[in-house]
Amino acid sequence: MAITADDVSLEDIIPISLDFAVVEVSSPEELAVVGADTRVRVSHQEEELELRLPFGSHSRLFLSEVNRAWSDVCKSTTQAPRFEWISKYHKNTRGQGVVKQAPSPLDSTLTQLNEHKKTEKPSDQKGSLERDKGSSNSGTQKTRAYSSQESQGLSSREDRDDLVRSSSHTTSNKAQILAMPQFGLRDNLIKCELMKSEDIYTYLQNFSFFLGTYNVNGQTPKESLFPWLNCTSDPPDMYCVGFQELDLSKEAFFFNDTPKELEWTKAVSEALHPDAKYALVKLVRLVGIMLIFYVKNEHAAFISDVEAETVGTGIMGRMGNKGAVSIRFRFHNSDICVVNSHLAAHIEEYERRNQDYKDICSRLQFRQLDPNQPPLTIMKHDVILWIGDLNYRITELEVSNVKELISNKDFETLHNYDQLKRQIDEEAVFVGFVEGDIDFQPTYKYDTGSDLWDTSEKCRVPAWCDRILYRGKNIVQKHYQSHMALKTSDHKPVSSLLQIGIKRVNPDDYKRTFEEIVRNIDKMENECIPSVTLSKREFHFTDLKYMQHQAETLSLFNDGQVPCQFEFIQKPNESTYCKAWLTANPSKGFIANGGTVDIDFEAFVNRSTAPELNSGQEQIEDILVLHLERGKDYFISISGNYLPSCYGSSIHSLCQLKEPIQDMPQETLREMAEKSGDENAENTEKPLDIPKELWMMVDHLFRSALKQEDIFQQPGLRSEFAVIRDCLDTGIPDSLPGSNHSVAEALLLFLDALPQPVVPFSFYQQCLESCSNASQCEKIISMLPQCHKNVFNYLAAFLRELLKNSASNRLDVNILATIFASLLLKSPTKQDFAEKRKTQEFFQHFLA
């Protein structure tokens, strides 16, 4: 589980003044790993802190802010502040040299920040921190007194030319300089024109990329990976190696922690091609999905803008047992994205796999160098490499027929029954991607330790679960094969060698192009004012529903004589440019003269925005202000209507409703919402014991899903959730449609959307304090408002019935406590890891 801001507390403060210094103190061993975290020591007078900064954009942003603050201090002509207010935060006893883990794992190129000399002129500190490389001996006497090991570390850092994390701006990535926040409209216009003219100053050079994917079924390395990773005669320029099911233990699932990461990483590093030296650029993991990126040492200096992201597509779209990890980077002048995914299992779940793919594409986003720019999605790269256990199966054939085709090596005929091929042919997934011809036998499922097909009771049909696809120009596949020699898992690893044409910069052509663009922009800026034409100015969203996306498109045409920069800006006294249920994508950007940009207005109501819309306190209405840099403002009207839902309505309100919520007048819903916090409010008739919508879902699961394998662990289909939601909100049909997994996920989403959780916020602290005492826990529940108490006891009774069937559904107390405690007992503010454990301990008393 990722560390969030909720898990961070204030422990110490180091003021930035003329006595401030910061220096990198990573050891030579750490520096030898390209892409490793960096350790820096910050100091102020006698105070010192050592920080471990993750390789990435968050660290770069942090160091940039430190540099900016230090520069402001140097420029200041006023008397230096004394920082007396800090004393109240200082602890009486504090160890020195404590390593603190920065909270975010996002990764990219990390700039190096060296200590600054007190007497340096402010003008010497301009620009990015990367230019301070080599000034390590310019600090105060105190920082000079570091150990010889630290000094060697700095020395070795400066001697290396192939460090990815140095991210010095070479000719190959000059365009990225222009995206930095200190550059304004003019330089962004130059960047825009440079990108349009890229063909003039770049040329193609071929590089080899080795891609490998292996579902290891929770095993530890039992054999060398040499036959898989060293199957090419010449050493590849890059290795992108993906694993799935690295660890199947509950500890890995719930806490994202596993010793097998190190074991498999070591096995990979020992099996790389022996005729070249490789640097580890980045490793990223989500539970059991891991991606490792190596590069030849001589190419490392040309890799920049490295970012890593993860997205879980498990239950409620959060759990990381299924999902994807991804690394994006710039190599010379080409942007490349590598995705390793593990999609939904089971032969009949191809629609769920399609949904996982679409979720990954939409939700996996990378931070850009300029924090003001919108994040990059997967598809906004020159080259996309997609590997993983995609889990698509072979259908419509009996297992005997499949094995006969395999024994005859008639893979072409067999491939016609492959789900992924059919879904690609129907353009349901992987549009624009290419997969090479498959001339190897299916990679799943084997008896572990052998080449025998599955002999278990289930006798699964062989399938090509493990796949490699690619998208982009100038890509030639040299091989695509499986590796039968490896027998550790019930899958066989797969590899592909791609030859990719990478864009490199010709410095002379770049200089001439750059200078010509500057001259043209100088001329246009003196002559013209930006202007655009809008396709329309009024947009309407009809019948918006909970968690159902709607979009309307605005087209902007640049009818002026110069490129223009647009941005949606905040209205007076408002903190954002639009309401929380609305987004504009993109919300800012550039349009070349004569060019057009489409902006999608996307409406999406979630648990945060639903309560006020359900009650009528908020309407689907907004005014957006579109601002042109150096130009005029345009006003855009947004309107629509929202269909009330049980999702996002309070337990109290739902217990008052004996009819479907969409049959109720808006005024009635508003009055009920106003009374929902008042247990003493007069009711004209007896309320329901529990919401009827909750009863319908639990009753369905009780009758149909007590023995359902992986219930509450396997996600449902979003299309089925929409039908279930409509059934609950309209009462049509009488019984719930959809699979058991979809109904189970709908129940979890219902609990997650409650404005006031089942255990109200006011009882949260008491629950934490009493978590180890069963009788006290029961006493607290007895004090809940009647409708909340009924819901709690009803759910607990249902979950106890599920546990009676654990042999079939594979549930246990820990799994249910982890899933449901986070929904029933929510913190009104922040919840740290210790509190999460206490809420689970509290709820376990009711599952016994």
Automatic annotation (TrEMBL):
CDD domains: INPP5c_INPP5B, RhoGAP_OCRL1
Bias (Basic and acidic residues) ranges: 114-134
Claim: Ligase is one of the keywords in the record: no
GO biological process, one term: phosphatidylinositol metabolic process
Class of the enzyme per the UniProt entry, highest EC level: hydrolase
Keywords for this protein: Cytoplasmic vesicle, Endosome, Hydrolase, Lipid metabolism, Membrane
GO MF terms, alphabetically ordered: phosphatidylinositol-4,5-bisphosphate 5-phosphatase activity
Biased amino acid composition, Polar residues: 135-155
GO CC annotation: early endosome membrane; phagocytic vesicle membrane
Entry EC no(s): 3.1.3.36
Region spans: Disordered: 110-171
Rho-GAP domain segment(s): 667-848
Subcellular location: Cytoplasmic vesicle, Phagosome membrane; Early endosome membrane
UniProt family annotation: Belongs to the inositol 1,4,5-trisphosphate 5-phosphatase type II family.
Protein name as catalogued: phosphoinositide 5-phosphatase
Organism: Pagothenia borchgrevinki
